[in-house]
Amino acid sequence: MHKLSRSNRDKVQQFVAITGASEKNALQTLKASDWQLEAAFDVFYSQPQPRSNADVRRLEELYNRYKGNTQDTSFFLLLNWNIYSDMILADGVSVLCSDLQVEPQDIVTLVLSWHMNAATACEFSREEFVGGLQALGVDSIKKLQEKLSFMRSELKDEQKFHEIYNFAFGWAKEKGQKSLALDTAIGMWQLLFAEREWPLLNHWCDFLQDRHNKAISKDTWEQLLEFARAVDPSLSNYDAEGAWPYLIDEFVEYLYDKSVVEK
Amino acid sequence: SLSFKMERKTIDLDQGWDYMQTGITKLKRILEGLPEPQFDSEQYMMLYTTIYNMCTQKPPHDYSQQLYDKYREAFEEYIHSTVLPALREKHDEYMLRELVKRWSNHKVMVRWLSRFFYYLDRYFIARRSLPPLNEVGLTCFRDLVYNELHSKVKDAVIALVDKEREGEQIDRALLKNVLDIYVEIGMGQMERYEEDFESFMLLDSASYYSRKASSWIQEDSCPDYMLKSEECLKKERERVAHYLHSSSEPKLVEKVQHELLVVYANQLLEKEHSGCRALLRDDKVDDLSRMYRLYHKIVKGLEPVANIFKQHVTAEGNALVQQAEDTATNHAANTASVQEQVLIRKVIELHDKYMVYVVECFQNHTLFHKALKEAFEIFCNKTVAGSSSAELLATFCDNILKKGGSEKLSDEAIEDTLEKVVKLLAYISDKDLFAEFYRKKLARRLLFDRSANDDHERSILTKLKQQCGGQFTSKMEGMVTDLTLARENQNSFEEYLGNNPAANPGIDLTVTVLTTGFWPSYKSFDINLPAEMVKCVEVFKGFYETKTKHRKLTWIYSLGTCHLNGKFDTKPIELVVSTYQAAVLLLFNTTDKLSYTDILTQLNLSHEDLVRLLHSLSCARYKILLKEPSTKTVSQSDSFEFNSKFTDRMRRIKIPLPPVDERKKVVEDVDKDRRYAIDAAIVRIMKSRKVLGHQQLVSECVEQLSRMFKPDIKAIKKRMEDLITRDYLERDKENPNMFRYLA
Fold first, then answer.
1. Which carries the bigger pLDDT value, residue B287 or residue B57?
2. CB-based contact (8 Å) between B675 and chain A?
3. In this predicted complex, what is the ipTM?
4. How far apart are CA A191 and CA A205, in angstroms?
């Protein structure tokens, strides 16, 4: 490290902070990219993440901590079915969040759940928890905490945001339901679009509460992102003959009706 | 004169030519009409032989080339000295006559000279690949006479043509002869005729008719203009037949048509008081036929006419609909429904009227069939006073087919009307809605024995089947069959009762067993039947189980009828009521007075139903029950008593229940069926295509379903979304406008 120039040293530090990679990895990647930070990021993100330092045993211990102590009677009473279903539930999750020093409604929990490929919000199975943290290359709360800024940065990546957004549907909906309850959907949209501005968000939410008042289908959820991305807020490039879900067609009519947009 | 010698002495060119010259001079004199006897065979032979000899002499006395040249020069000399001067001094018609004469003469001259010089044709011209004598002769005339005069001639001809157009008599034979020159001078090609005459004639004709058209279009009415045009075209065709070359006909006709009918098409058809619209309005079939004849031959000429026709029929149809709508809003409910029936009648008449137009005036042309169809599709799908056209049509049928319906017609007239109604159905997009209304009304007719004539019932079903396919009518046919079977069944039931007197319920019972799938769905409440009726149900069940154990009977009491003997003070009267009404009345056999609540509890009905029943028995025309208080409507605090003082002059009275509005349920049922139909269509299409773009999927879906209804895009999108949720379809990852079938 001491052989490096000051600017290159800075770059290594930056790289580690943002990607969470090891110093050794950072050095290698930056050298290979001719000390161009942007290029180094590209290379790094296109590689599969190494499953290096995470010690599976330590992860199992961590899991059990959040799953709850089966000898503890109060836990047993509260979450008595916990022993039979091997899951970290709402209580465990809120402990996890406070350990990480994040609010439970912080969007980073969604990103974390995405890494775990969690089936439902506020629940982690053993596999999901252990597998997710392994994939992130962490095995302790401290290391996980260090990864938070990296996880937040993933939301800025176009492709990853798309995946996380689509993942959010399945994650946020009730188990056994095919559609997402309207209130939950609106909450999720507000959370997600805080990360990337969409000028029509409020109108969309108003419209849904005003005119729709029913659950949101997966197709509508997914296509909405496409709509937010591709269609200009003035609707100048909106194709009425296109394959947009009918709810989005109705939204466009609503915008014209309420003179939000000129026809 | 010369004498013929046997020995061949060498003929010198000058000598020989001098001799030939005498022959030529003789010929000229004959042509000029001077007194000159015809050639005799000896003279002819001499001339021929002279040429022969001069050509077969040994060199240097073989004079073929020189003779060939002199042959041509003979013509040239004659033309320059005599023919051209004669022509140049004349003009107009006189010039034409002279030309015809000179041409005729020339042809004679060519014929004779080429016979004299024939030997040249045999060997010399072939050996040297030279034009034959005939051609040389004609070419001389062409190059010297024709080329100088053809333009003047053309002008003179055209002037005469225009004179004839203005109505003056001209010498047609002369013109024919002149124009024959143009044709013949082309020597097998039509070029001279076409370039030197025809093209100018066409231009002149165009400008002639352009002038005429521009003044006629201002002064004349549309029919008059068309008459004139027709006449002009006829005359021009005659002109061709008489003196123009036949190949000019299509070109000339096209020009005339263009100036008279194409250039002013819009002005003509749209003439305010006499144009196409006015003609349709005033039923001017002859003028319209003429219009068709004239515009039929013009490329795309009929399109504006068909368009005006379509607009006219649409306007008439819309007016009828509006009339019915207005009457409905201004009048009471009864007259409104009569008006609606009148509307259907009028629409049928409108269709008949304009179909005649299509067949006769417009010669069955597809454009007009299409215009008529599109016009009807527009106004036949409008709503009148809240009723869809599908419902109106079903009600109309019901009126014809039921007993005591508003239409009193002969059997033939009924058949005819039914035929026409089925044809109208083709224009209605919501055919499935019609089917459902029809089915509901058919059910009522069948179940309450209100069908006037079985044959008519079957006949319309056959017609509907033909037009809309077997699936359309299968349920209805099932219903009609059920009734026939029900009668047989009733006979068996009566036999069974005869054989099992203990089972007899003591009441005359008739049961109609229906096949569930065929009939409209009916709600059925678990009303607490009076004991007598309960026994009836048991008895029939017993009988039915002897026939089949595999079927379940569901009783629809709401459709039953009951005949009760009312023992009133004055006289007994038979009451014909529904089963529900009977159940209410029979309660008063055991108790004199009952409160609303009593009745409700005892019968186990809904408020809505009970209010309706009690109203019909206590607040309507026949007050079988006395209501306390005697207000006009039934409320839950009322009480009821049997009205023993009730009487009527009739011995039997029917106490009707007000009809329930079936419209809402029909529309709901049809909407539900449509959702399934759209789903099925989408799945069918995607299963076969595997991957398909959104727009194509939608348009194929619409097409597949068009036989029964017109699905709207929103409905299709909703179903697609549902199918995506149910994992039948997915969007393509790369292109969200494409859909993929998930097996």
1. B287
2. no
3. 0.70
4. 12
